[in-house]
Amino acid sequence: MNFAPSKHLQQLKKGIFHELAEAKRRVEQSGTPVIDLSVGSPDLPPPDFAREILSSLACDGRHYGYTLGAIPGFNDAVARFYKKRYGVPLDPETEILQLIGSQDGLAHLGTAILNPKDVVLVPDPGYPIYEAGVRMAGGHPLGMPLTEENGFLPDLTAVPEDIARQARMLILNYPSNPVAATADRSFYEEVIRFARKYEILVVQDFTYSELVFDGKTATSILSVPGAKDVAIEFNSFSKTFNLAGCRIGYVTGNAQVLNILSDMMSHTHYGVFYPIQQAAIACLEQGESFIQQQVKRYESRRDTLVEALSQGGWNLQKPPATMYVWANIPKGWASIDFAFRLLEKTGVVVTPGSAFGLQGEGYVRMTLTQAEGDLQKAAERMSHFVKQGVR
Ligand SMILES: Cc1ncc(COP(=O)(O)O)c(C=O)c1O
């Protein structure tokens, strides 16, 4: 027998992280100490109170059945959090849907909503599941270039009229991975006007909603009047509360779309582990000071890394949000060659910008998921590498 992946799966690019991990292993074996700034998995623990809830409930043998969806209290807690933090009222019954991480919803949305060959506008560079989710559903992703000149926001006026008419979905991600940019209310107002005009579903990924620096806060797209007619917004506990491995998130907004996704999930999902749901509720209700500490920590790491790199000759700005630094690399390098050569010569692992789309060429992404001492060391090694002009 010969088994082959489906045509949809064959269209997906192989993840770069696999190759990086392999190269990292070789460098480690050669004795070079590695500092990994490639994967966006939080290095810090969730709040103590969340771990206590998780461990005590996990010891109780009654909590091991299928939950089949949100437990009582979860949607109410999300609704209160949304009202308090973003001023957005949500109906807990119809405008909130629990997910096994936002990735889960982003991956399944295309299959629930799209028909073969449907056009979807995706950010380029963008988080890879946007394109992959569309392709797995047989849809056709079209990149919207995010450039430094446009503040890493897509230029909707540059979308050709015929493409706008064909598009079924438009995917956004602010604060964004990998470009670490934010979007303001006026941008979302323009998006909502565009979506209404061309009858497009707007999908905003708000996974980094709380990791915003310099005393600022992020805007929820749902706070724009009329947004719920055309938009849904994904959120997560992974980055805000460091619960990444627990796999819990949610999507809010347009009730009809959430109902379709929920229908689909009734075939594929049996719900999130009860103790995890309880820990997540507690995070939403008691997590305010934890979020403040978390923001301070990442902000300070950002300052350390960016200041050290700037002094070392790198040309980059302090990002306003997220756990990433999106950095220009010296001219003449392909980002993939730069990343592998940097790893081989210095032991610092970064992700080549091209892994996130064509427009990512010329950049690398660094994560802030290491202690400040290691970020400082990594910056020194990277600066030395760039100054030497190694090829
Ligand atoms: C932009 C973005 N969206 C979604 C996810 C997935 O998050 P979750 O852990 O909630 O599935 C990530 C994870 O890195 C991300 O960077």
Automatic annotation (TrEMBL):
The keyword Transferase applies. It comes from the Bacteria. Coiled coil: none annotated. InterPro entries: Aminotransferase_I/II_large, LL-DAP_aminotransferase, NHTrfase_class1_PyrdxlP-BS, PyrdxlP-dep_Trfase, PyrdxlP-dep_Trfase_major, PyrdxlP-dep_Trfase_small. Its cofactor is pyridoxal 5'-phosphate. CDD domains: AAT_like (cd00609). The keyword Transferase applies. Keywords: Aminotransferase, Transferase. PANTHER family: AMINO ACID AMINOTRANSFERASE (PTHR42832), L-GLUTAMINE--4-(METHYLSULFANYL)-2-OXOBUTANOATE AMINOTRANSFERASE (PTHR42832:SF3). This is Aminotransferase. The lineage of its organism: Bacteria, Bacillati, Bacillota, Bacilli, Bacillales.
